[in-house]
Amino acid sequence: xxxxxxxxxxxxxxxxxxxxxxxxxxxxxxxxxxxxxxxxxxxxxxxxxxxxxxxxxxxxxxxxxxxxxxxxxxxxxxxxxxxxxxxxxxxxxxxxxxxxxxxxxxxxxxxxxxxxxxxxxxxxxxxxxxxxxxxxxxxxxxxxxxxxxxxxxxxxxxxxxxxxxxxxxxxxxxxxxxxxxxxxxxxxxxxxxxxxxxxxxxxxxxxxxxxxxxxxxxxxxxxxxxxxxxxxxxxxxxxxxxxxxxxxxxxxxxxxxxxxxxxxxxxxxxxxxxxxxxxxxxxxxxxxxxxxxxxxxxxxxxxxxxxxxxxxxxxxxxxxxxxxxxxxxxxxxxxxxxxxxxxxxxxxxxxxxxxxxxxxxxxxxxxxxxxxxxxxxxxxxxxxxxxxxxxxxxxxxxxxxxxxxxxxxxxxxxxxxxxxxxxxxxxxxxxxxxxxxxxxxxxxxxxxxxxxxxxxxxxxxxxxxxxxxxxxxxxxxxxxxxxxxxxxxxxxxxxxxxxxxxxxxxxxxxxxxxxxxxxxxxxxxxxxxxxxxxxxxxxxxxxxxxxxxxxxxxxxxxxxxxxxxxxxxxxxxxxxxxxxxxxxxxxxxxxxxxxxxxxxxxxxxxxxxxxxxxxxxxxxxxxxxxxxxxxxxxxxxxxxx
Length: 641
Prior knowledge:
Blueprint: E1 8-15, H1 23-39, E2 44-46, H2 64-81, E3 88-97, E4 100-109, E5 112-118, E6 144-147, E7 150-153, E8 159-162, E9 167-172, H3 174-177, H4 182-188, E10 193-198, H5 206-220, E11 224-229, E12 245-249, E13 252-256, E14 265-272, H6 273-282, E15 295-298, H7 325-347, E16 352-355, H8 360-375, E17 383-387, H9 395-408, E18 411-414, H10 418-427, H11 437-458, E19 461-464, H12 468-473, E20 486-487, H13 494-508, H14 511-521, H15 542-546, H16 549-562, H17 566-576, H18 583-599, H19 601-605, H20 633-640
Parallel strand pairs: 1-2, 2-3, 8-15, 9-10, 10-11, 16-17, 16-19, 17-18, 19-20
Antiparallel strand pairs: 1-14, 3-4, 4-5, 6-7, 8-9, 11-12, 12-13
């Protein structure tokens, strides 16, 4: 697979075995790891600080023999890299520039040494004595040096290395620990990936703090952060080094290597450059100050073809990880509750009306209302739930609706719509046995009229039940269930609705109510607008007509959160759902998604108020402003090519 074509690059953080001051051995290990990385189609690989000599050489750094051998070893490695047209390697060494010694990172490709980046901040406290040997980049008096019979730029203020696939910058160890790391400026200047060559010794509790710094810096910089630290073979005279290797992306941990290993350690990850660029595009503050400039080094690089992805794609991006489930779902539930509470307070009403179908969405809306009324110390009887059986209502959903209302203690009403809709269809001259869109929508609008009028009668508000997934697909009747006075589920996608109801069932409900909720969760999604089958079961199953909600929620998240192209969504969906849906089925439902999403915008343009709960929202007053008559051809055509 052409990962670069879809916006990914492959990076590695390596911690090789070293021998102190044995450059030949160290270069041999570095070469072996580069070969291994090449076999894995790695494009960028970072090694630890001073990896050519080892970090713990002490006063040996001041010996001319070691300095010269380090440069000779760099030349050897440069020659080795000439056969690697698809890889860039970053290694550390001591380098004499002018009359000062510097701790530097050398960036290598098949073109040679592309640039030298000196360490900016030199630690000189506690166990660190680096100023005894090294100067900081602020002391530089040269802008280039000769390596391998070629003038190489020395980048005192940092630099951006520009490849065909990503822009990257380099910082060294202590730089990360400073209040304003060099990577902060580099990222503002365009660097999408930061490589840190480090030699961070181990102390009790230090690893967790170090990891938090890496994750936070990748988040602040909206970048990927590749961290490689010294390990096996460093001197243990006074310190121990564990060989920590970490790859993070925008505050997310992608890969972490084994520490305290006696072998070469390397972790590999695929960085999503396209997502990083999308996030920066949306952040209007992510622009460099005009007066500042940064040197840019162009790097030639060939693409790679990979057999597999070194990255996991979450097929259910709206559903929290089990470790965070309680906190995440609790927050969603509280946001919904507080939103409704504020609306009741503002309007001065103490009553609401909800249509209860026995389905998942109306169940969640009812549970939100119940919690809201408990929060406001209002009687639950002020919540009127109305179930409105029609032509397609089954006994299962009918009984669940009534029993749920009874169990949670709200006022329950039953108003059949059969006679009213039959009369209405007769009035407009529509054949009762013609089960078309008119037949279906007449029922939805009749139910909405009942809810609105009853709310007017009792001085209450109609609480909407429709969810984000239905809004995206337009799976709602215009001026029917699309309309309400406050839509508590408006930014909750279908997959999250199910997770919320299940969580509420297990954490906040007594046994009998829990059983009802679990049965509702097992009920097929359906608007029940068509007659039941011969066995009295639901015949109109939503996912049969529009496709699996888990796929549509995935498509929606990729499109709105990251601005992904159709081709890229298709590629990522094939990775995420590799064992669930064949590629042709993913393509089929992706086309359905785009067609419906574009055709149904007019319903979203006049959607009622509702609270935003996550990063994806379709409110025309919030995250999504789209003309109702936009043409979908561009998106569909890309899927055909």
